[in-house]
């Protein structure tokens, strides 16, 4: 699970970097977030969640942040790398 979480953190960090927004590591509360509610950020975060969890129902948007609450959903047995690469800038390695 630790390797899975590190890959998820890296994906969210790269998403934040690509959009020029702040990455927030709130893993002590089982949350990762980016400081943006924009539609492009939300779309990328949804795709990241779909790649890791097969669903994006673990996303919450509010108070200026888009959060992934990863303790509320079971991860996929294998990350969907193809879907993940569509959510991140070209050439990103996770």
What overall geometry do the principal axes of the alpha carbons give? globular
Record field, number of beta strands: 4
Structure classification: alpha+beta
Order of H and E elements: HEEHEEH
Brief summary of the model shown:
This protein is an alpha+beta fold.
Structure, described:
- This protein has 94 residues and is α+β, with helices and mostly antiparallel strands.
- It has one domain.
- Helices cover 43% and strands 18% of the residues.
- The protein has helices at residues 2-19, 39-53, 81-87, and strands at residues 23-26, 31-34, 59-62, 65-69.
- It has a 4-stranded antiparallel beta sheet.
- Strand 3 and strand 4 form a beta hairpin.
- Helix 2 runs antiparallel to helix 3.
- The protein is globular and about 30 Å long.
- The relative contact order is 0.21.
- The model has no long low-confidence stretch (mean pLDDT 94).
Topology:
Blueprint: H1 2-19, E1 23-26, E2 31-34, H2 39-53, E3 59-62, E4 65-69, H3 81-87
Antiparallel strand pairs: 1-2, 2-4, 3-4
Features:
94 residues, 3 helices
């Amino acid at each position: 699970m630790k390797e899975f979480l590190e890959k998820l953190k890296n994906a969210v960090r790269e998403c934040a970097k690509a959009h020029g927004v702040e990455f927030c590591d709130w893993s002590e509360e089982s949350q990762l977030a980016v400081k943006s509610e924009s539609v492009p950020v939300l779309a990328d975060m949804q795709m990241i969640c779909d790649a890791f969890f097969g669903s994006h129902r673990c996303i919450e948007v509010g108070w200026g942040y888009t959060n992934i609450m990863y303790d509320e959903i079971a991860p996929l047995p294998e990350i969907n790398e193809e879907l993940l690469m569509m959510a991140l800038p070209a050439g990103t390695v996770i």
